[in-house]
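Researcher: Structure prediction, please.
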Amino acid sequence: MVTSMRRLGNSDSPIISYGIIALCVVIFIAELLTGTTGGVVFQDLAYYGPLTATQPWRLVTSIFVHLSILHLLFNMYSVFVFGPMMERMLGRARFAALFLLSGLAGSVAVLLIAPATPVAGASGAIFGLLGAYFVIQRHLGGNNIQLLVVIGINLIISFVIPGIAWQAHIGGLIVGALIGLIFVRTRNRSQRRIQLAALGGTLVGLIALTVVGASIVLSRVSG
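Model: Predicted structure follows.
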């Protein structure tokens, strides 16, 4: 156990990826103990458009709650496969920013396109990882064919299978690709402030879209 903890403390250990998986598992256990989708944990953390104006944290907390054990396993397997690779490539802080901003973008996309659709799960953030990896790999001259196939298949599944919030997948994919572009354009240490400013601008833009979406939802409810 001590050896394992020391390995996790190494600079190249994907602590953020494993932390995301652990957090999602713990929250899902709490969901099971309180009644899964009908319980207080799910009801307080999942995304639901009409509640966004007064409970904006749902845009982020919804990333970490899941609808079923299969939903959890599929998403956590994706994080386990792509997370460590991306985290070692980008570093912990950049990887965390990519994951959270992509997940937030997925929720914002749902708010703007289909605000009445309840949403839970890390799919938007995972699509963000795929989008960023595509841009980075393309910039480095890698072969993108297999990755394009993976993204394409998952997008088709999003549209074909009922009950899947494809809006979150598209939103996460677009913002993930944007963040990947930011990273490849600001790789030098001398560009660190530019990189932080660009990431901050992305966050501000998502917040602005949230305000717009919440205003539209409130106007519909009051009307």
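Model: The chain has a mean pLDDT of 88.
Researcher: Thanks, that helps.
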